[in-house]
Amino acid sequence: MASNITTTQTVGPFPHEAWQWAVDASAKLESSASVITISGVIRDGDGKPINDAWVEVWMPDAVAAEAAQAIPGFRRIPSDDDGAFQIQVSLPHPASSGKPVLFATIFARGLIKHQFTAVFLEDDSGLAQSDILNQVPSDRRHTLIARKQGKAQYHWDIWMQSDKETVFFDYI
Amino acid sequence: MRFESPEAGVYPSLIYPPYVSTVKRGPTQEPLRIRATEPVQTNITASPRLILPHDTDLTKHGQSEPLGEKIVITGRVLDEDGKPVRNSLLEVWQCNSAGRYWHKRDQHDAPLDPNFYGFGKMLTDDDGRYRFVTIKPGPYPWGNHHKAWRPAHIHFSLFGSVYAQRLVTQMYFPSDPLFEFDPIFQSIPDAAARQRLIARFSLEQTVDDKMLGYEFDIVLRGRDATPMGL
Questions:
Q1: Within a domain: B50
Q2: Secondary structure of chain B in the HEC alphabet?
Q3: CATH (domain of B124)
Q4: Residues 136 to 195 of B: which have CB under 8 A from any A CB?
């Protein structure tokens, strides 16, 4: 049967005022779980930071711990002037199952279709058994893994292009 | 839900040189089709408390009426089985009637309207329907190339029933002479998919002498996970 889906268009450069309410709703975190921070920079094919991108995050496992939030388990984060973003992640239990700690959706001017991806923690002892990572070609899995920087601090960059291009998903 | 492969040409070409900023920002690799349970089964809970008074009437944000042509836009949000997507969050944003966004980076030499900010949000009802009142946005230049003018459009952001249904798109108005010159619109190879982004004028939705009505239905990806007949 022919598909009649509504196609995508870019978010453009000007969603900030319209999208701010959800930035505010997710900026201040009340969580009963332990919280880690994943920081990174989103870059284009020349390695240039993208200063008008958006990272939206869905963390189904964090919903219960974030019951006090306006939208539990959700973040919306604009990249700053340096293309940088910081995501606060509730971890109800230590990552050991090979599950992503978050699902991310990326939007930007010049990106005509938003892109889905996911982030895993490098110290998750279950990465080798990950259902999702095992579907990703082994030489690209590293693009989905946040590196530990210190206590409760991780680093994960998003590359739209280049030999470091982040793996983007189309869910089945 | 389950998500079939999109048909070729329905989604825009992610690297489409006439739209200059796609050249370095569009992913070069095909998206990886993967099975993952939570994205196709779970989603945020959008509480009705998130919706504020006047979020569905963009003409009520200032001290008085904004300038321009007042219109109402309504439609249904459906999945690929034709089932309504209920109680689902939908955001809209747009420029004003003169073609200027309420945004510090918009330097277009057109006036801001102190009575029009140009954004709203709402939840779909039990029939999947949304409805909001606004001002018809103007076309505006965007510097992509010489005489680059965007056709009038309203941005839509939808959260669907499950996470993987997330959609951001733009709604256009019928018979815009700028369609053929707009690389953002033309980045969609499939002509029928382009046409589905164009609202239709509706006398039925037109409200007396107050405002013209437009209908814009949206079909999100995703079908029932259980095949029919099982």
A1: yes
A2: CECCCCCCCCCCCCCCCCCCCHHHHCCCCCCEEECCHHHHHCCCCCCHHHCCCCCCEHHHCCCCCCCCCEEEEEEEEECCCCCECCCCEEEEECCCCCCCCCCCCCCCCCCCCCCCCCEEEEECCCCCEEEEEEECCCCEECCCCCCCEECCEEEEEECCCCHHHCEEEEEECCCCCCHHHCHHHHCCCCHHHHHCCECEEEEEEEECCCEEEEECCEECCCECCCCCCC
A3: 2.60.130.10
A4: 153, 155, 157, 163-164, 166-170, 184-185, 187-188, 190, 193-194
Contacts of B209 (CB under 8 A, 6+ apart): none
Confidence band of B125 (pLDDT split at 50, 70, 90): very high
Note down the domain range covering B110.
40-219
A70 inside 8 A of chain B by CB: yes
User: ipTM score of the complex?
Assistant: 0.97
CB B22 within 8 A of CB B15: yes
Q: Which domains does chain A have, with CATH numbers?
A: 16-159 (2.60.130.10)
Q: Does any domain span residue B202? A: yes
Interface-testing mutation among B1, B4, B11, B44, with chain A (most A C-beta atoms within 10 A): B44
Residue B104 lies in a domain: yes
Q: Rounded to a whole number, what is the distance in Å from the CA of B106 to chain A's nearest CA?
A: 8
Looking at residue B104, its pLDDT comes to 87
Element (DSSP H or E) covering residue A55: strand A53-58
Domain count, chain B: 1
B218 within 8 A of B78, measured Cβ to Cβ: yes
On the question of pLDDT at A41 being above 90, the answer is yes
- In terms of pTM, does the model score above 0.95? yes
| Nearest C-alpha neighbor of B93 from the set B147, B157, B141, B145 | B157
Strands A74-78 and A53-58: antiparallel
- The stretch B24-32 carries a mean pLDDT of 98
Identity of the residue numbered B13: S
CB A106 within 8 A of CB A55: yes
Distance of alpha carbon A167 from alpha carbon B152, whole angstroms:
34
Q: Has residue B47 been placed in a domain?
A: yes
pLDDT band per the 50, 70, 90 thresholds, residue A36: very high
